[in-house]
Design brief:
The chain has about 210 residues and is an all-alpha fold. The chain has six helices and two strands; from the N terminus they run H-H-H-H-H-E-E-H. Keywords: Coiled coil.
Length: about 210
């Protein structure tokens, strides 16, 4: 009778213990499931960051490549510019293009070059010839004019079908001086300073 009375009590205690364990397991499962969801979100975020980082790295690589190309071209221009902008410090050997063009057809090399009649005029800033004194402009820096370039200008002038000293002089003028100077002086300067205009710089006339 004593054994039979203890059996229901032990069974009840076991059931209570198991139910408590079930509740504990469910709580832990819920916690683990929540953590799994959080971890999945973190993994997705990290994957997006990895994709963004790969895109950024590709963009940086493209920018670096573009920068290298620009720097290479800049170095080439820097190396070429001093040669293009080299100024004449002494008179280079002269060809006889101007002598053949400005002189008579049968003149020899000892004849004196004639002055060009005029320089072609382009629109420039007007100046009053009545209120200014005739002065010769000071010498200006001149660019180098190679003999073969001068020969080319001479041939192009002859190809027009007539002897045109004015065209040849204008071509040489533009080759020796910046175009801005040619354009500005066209209406204000002539060979000998006549008609109230200034005289060309001496070093330019000597060319």
């Amino acid at each position: 009778a004593a054994v039979l009375s203890m059996a229901p009590t032990s069974l009840k205690s076991t059931m209570v213990s198991e139910r408590a364990e079930i509740r504990d397991i469910r709580r832990r499962l819920t916690k683990v499931e929540r953590q799994a969801v959080i971890n999945a979100r973190i993994i997705a975020h990290l994957e997006r960051q990895a994709t963004d980082n790969a895109r950024i790295l590709a963009h940086l690589e493209a920018l670096n490549k573009r920068l290298d190309q620009i720097e290479a071209r800049e170095k080439q221009r820097t190396a070429i510019t001093p040669q293009c902008n080299q100024q004449v410090t002494s008179d280079p050997p002269r060809t006889y293009c101007g002598r053949r063009l400005f002189g008579a057809p049968d003149s020899d090399e000892g004849n004196v070059e004639q002055s060009p009649a005029f320089l072609p005029a382009t629109p420039a800033y007007p100046r009053s010839s009545a209120s200014k004194k005739n002065t010769q402009l000071p010498d200006v820096p001149l660019r180098a004019l190679a003999a073969d370039h001068e020969e080319t200008l001479y041939k192009e002038c002859l190809q027009r079908g007539e002897r045109r000293p004015d065209v040849y002089a204008a071509s040489v003028f533009m080759a020796l001086c910046p175009f801005e100077a040619y354009q500005s002086w066209a209406k204000q300067v002539n060979w000998n300073g006549s008609n109230g205009k200034d005289t060309l710089p001496k070093n330019l006339k000597d060319k």
